[in-house]
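Ex. 9. Protein: Arginine--tRNA ligase.
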Amino acid sequence: MSTSVYSRYRAAFAQALAGALGVPASDIDAQVKPADPAHGDLSFATFPLAKAQKKAPPAIAASLAQSLQVPGLEVKAVGPYVNARFLPLPFTQEVIDSVRQAGIAYGSNAEEGKGKTVVIDYSSPNIAKPIGFHHIRTTFLGHCIANLYRALGWRVEGINYLGDWGKQFGLVAVGFQEFGKEELREDMAHLVQVYVQANKRAGEDPAFDEKAREFFRRMEANEPEAMKLWNQFRETSLKGFKRVYKRMGIDFEHIEGESRYQGRMDAVIAQIAKKPGVKESQGAIIVDMPYAENEPPVLLKKNDGSTLYATRDLAAAEDRHARFNFDKSLYVVAQDQALHFRQVFRTLTEMGQPWADKCIHVPFGRIHGMSTRKGQVVELDQVLDESKERVLKLVEANIASGNLVTEDPDGLAEQIGLGAIVFGDLKHNRASDYTFDWDEVTSPEGHTGPYLQYAHARSATVLRKGGGVPASHDPALLTLPEEQALVRELMRLPDTVRAAAEQYEPSLVARLLLDVAAAYSRYYTAGNKEREKRILVEDNDALRAARLALTDATRITLAAGLTLLGIPTPENM
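Predicted structure tokens for Arginine--tRNA ligase:
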């Protein structure tokens, strides 16, 4: 797809300003901002020019506005600002055509990231444990960021980096020997019960905890019996994980874990020993580099010879660069791990890796409000079940009242329930904490997934009632303020997708979709209040076709944005 409609007009305005001022367009570009909607669409402040021109900013603005002729823009001075407004034509036609021609790919630009590769490490549950509710941020954020980069033409290598190595697996193994039932060896739920019991026992019994550590040492020594048990439990966990990911519509290019780097750690430590160096500290091996006051050192090996997260992450970073030659390597991991990643990336830099600055931690905040019982994890699957059950009650009530007709209420509830959970997370700024609230998340009104899905379904319903998508339309007829406001919201998706990818911030897309849905709701409601504003206006086929084309563009924009977020798009609600 070519440059977005907004970007083209913005560039033309900046170019015209630069020509009038006799400076490069690059000097002006960053100074062109969105205008106050009451005064236009684009704005340029003249304050920085006052000293050089020895004129008051309003006088500069008035002179500049008179000198500018930009096709498709109405340029006016408003005090010290030069403002530009998109003329209804060709702007309206360009936006609607760009949406409808692109279809579900609207917002994408396959040329932008052509030839570039991004590696995205996300989700990453531990084997022998369920995918917990606390995994939703890394999973949904990572999935959406991957979608954004795919939309921009990047080659995406999504990695589900399993926690399948370490003492926690020793706990599962020795726990199974003591609490496990052989006939339930391949039952994920049973493995979880075993882990909970073993973890509790280890906290109370140092001898049991040492048995778990010893089992992990046997794994690191590649002892056959230990590795056989590890592999059996890992496969059981993977089966359970894949079922949940399929339910969420999430797929990974690679599912691999820390175990991939077993046997490679000594080579990494030897490499670090050359530069920047290693040293012994209380029997452990650490990276020999300067540390801030009270900063813990980067541990590479414990005093018992076992390796740590940092060692494996350093090996993984080198392996990923060797395999993918990435332009970016993103780690979508909680803010709690900020120090860990700063130290890993700094170690790579000290090792002299020229690509170290391409490794980026994408942190996120915490979720509050989901109650847990001590020692137990709230499973993501259970949360999706409850969301579906809550939504199904609303679906059945609407069917009973005659407001909804569907042959698959259960499937519809699954789609809406998933959308509620996904959007309930992604609408929040990535770095912020938020409190989970069931009533808010599943509400069909407000800033929710069901509200957006309903807006999409409503636009699809209007199209069906109107006889389908019009073959042709006259955009000159779309002159209502509600129509022009809606067109301006539709215009924003391509630039929002780009900004969301650059900032690793899916909430930008989520908030735009809320704006699109709100603008369409105002448009639809205006027709309920004033007959001549109805989308399915009677006795005027040309106007009806134009409004149906705008509705179609709205449906497509909502569908494209929801799909990027990983949210289903039912056409009947």
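Check your answer against this statement. The mean pLDDT is 95.
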